[in-house]
Design a protein that fits this description.
about 325 residues, alpha/beta, 434 Repressor (Amino-terminal Domain), Rossmann fold, six-stranded mixed β-sheet, about 15% strand
Length: about 325
C-alpha cells in the first residue's frame, strides 16, 4: 500500500479488482454484486480509507464545504456563533472550514484566498477591526460564491447579513442608567471602522438627546479590550467631573473598566454603574460584582447565517441583500442599581 492516506487504488490492488469497480461498489452501484460491495467496504475499513472530498467536489461541482472567518474563536460570542453555523451546516450535509483573522485585514484577505482555493461552496464572514477595504469580499461575489456577513457587516458590499439589535441594546443600557438617576454616562466605544460600534454609539447618543443631556466628548473614548478598558477608565476617573455610569462596547472591555474602578476604590454600582455588551457567561459570572450586560444571541446568529448561506448555494439569481436582525436583551446583575 502507498504511504499516507489510503486511496481506492490501494483497495483495488488488495482485492485484485479494477479501480472503477471499487468506486462503483463504494457508491452502491446496482451493477456490482453484494459480495463485492461487502469485500470493498471491509477492505476500506481495514485500510481506514477516507473519501477525498475535494476530488468529489471537483466532479460534482459542489464541495459541501463552507468557510467561516471570525476575528477570534477564543471569544465566547464567536465560539457560540461557530456552534450555530456548524450544527446547521452539519445537519444539511456540509462541513465547515474555520479561519481566524485575529483582527488583521491582511490575515482576513489570506483567509479568503485559502477558502477559495479549497473550493468552498460559500463563505460566512465577521469583519476584522482593521478592515476598511472590502475588495476581497467583492472578489468572492465576482467568483459566484455566496457570501453572508454575520454580526460585523459592511454597507459597501451588498450581501445577506445577520446582525443583532446593536442600536437597541445600547439604547436600553443608557435608558436604564438614566432611569436610576445617572446622568454622567461614559461610553467605551469600539473601532470607528465597525458598523456595530457606530450603532451602539448612536443608541447611547440618542438616549442622551431624548433626555436633554448634553453630549460630552471626554466621556466617549475608544476601548475594545481589557487593557484599553482599564486604561481609559483610569483616564475618565481623572476628570474633574467623573462619570457616574459606564457603558462598554463589549464585556471584556467592561471587565477592564471594573478592574480600574476597584483599584481606585470606587464602589460599583453605588458610585459608578457599569453595563457591558455580549453577555459572556464566563465574564459576567466571574467579575466581582457580577456584570450587567446586553444579551447577544450568538448561537442563533450563527445558525441563521448558515441557513441564509445554504439557501443561496447553487442559486443563479443575484444574491439578495437581506438583513436579519435578532433581538437583544438587558441582563441586570450586580453592577447596576
Amino acid at each position: 500500500m502507498s504511504k499516507g492516506q489510503a486511496t481506492i487504488k490501494d483497495i483495488a490492488k488488495a482485492l485484485r479488482i479494477s479501480v472503477s469497480t471499487v468506486s462503483r461498489a463504494l457508491h452502491d452501484h446496482p451493477d456490482i454484486s453484494e459480495k463485492t460491495k461487502k469485500a470493498v467496504r471491509e477492505e476500506a475499513r481495514r485500510l481506514d480509507y477516507q473519501p477525498n472530498l475535494i476530488a468529489q467536489g471537483l466532479r460534482q461541482q459542489k464541495s459541501h464545504l463552507i468557510g467561516l472567518i471570525v476575528p477570534e474563536i477564543v471569544h465566547h460570542f464567536f465560539s457560540t456563533t461557530l456552534s450555530g453555523v456548524e450544527d446547521f451546516a452539519n445537519s444539511q450535509g456540509y462541513h465547515v472550514m474555520v479561519c481566524q483573522s485575529n483582527e488583521s485585514y491582511e490575515r482576513e484577505k489570506t483567509n479568503v484566498k485559502a477558502l477559495l482555493s479549497s473550493r468552498v461552496d460559500g463563505i460566512i464572514v465577521s469583519v476584522s477591526k482593521e478592515t476598511t477595504d472590502f475588495s476581497h469580499f467583492k472578489h468572492i461575489q465576482k467568483r459566484g460564491i455566496p457570501l453572508v456577513f454575520m454580526d460585523r457587516i459592511c454597507n459597501e458590499v451588498k450581501a445577506p447579513s445577520v446582525v443583532c439589535q446593536d442600536y437597541e441594546g445600547a439604547y436600553m443600557a443608557a435608558e436604564h442608567f438614566i432611569s436610576h438617576g445617572r446622568r454622567r454616562i461614559a461610553h467605551l466605544r469600539g473601532p470607528k471602522s465597525l458598523l456595530i460600534s457606530k450603532q451602539r454609539l448612536n443608541g447611547y447618543l440618542d438616549v442622551l438627546s431624548k433626555h436633554r443631556i448634553p453630549k460630552k466628548d471626554e466621556y466617549i473614548v475608544f476601548a475594545s479590550d481589557f487593557e484599553s478598558g482599564y486604561r481609559e477608565t483610569l483616564r475618565l476617573l481623572d476628570l474633574h467631573e467623573k462619570p457616574d455610569a459606564i457603558f462598554a462596547v463589549n464585556d471584556i472591555t467592561a471587565a477592564g473598566s471594573l478592574r480600574a474602578l476597584q483599584e481606585k476604590g470606587f464602589r460599583v454600582p453605588e458610585d459608578i454603574s457599569v453595563i457591558g455588551f455580549g453577555d459572556d457567561p464566563v465574564i459576567t459570572k466571574l467579575t466581582v460584582p457580577k456584570l450587567s450586560s446586553i444579551y447577544q444571541p450568538g448561537y442563533e446568529m450563527g445558525k441563521m447565517s448558515a441557513q441564509m448561506l445554504l439557501k443561496n448555494i447553487g442559486v443563479q439569481e443575484p444574491f439578495p441583500h437581506e438583513i436579519r436582525v435578532l433581538k437583544t436583551e438587558l441582563k441586570l446583575r450586580e453592577t447596576t442599581l
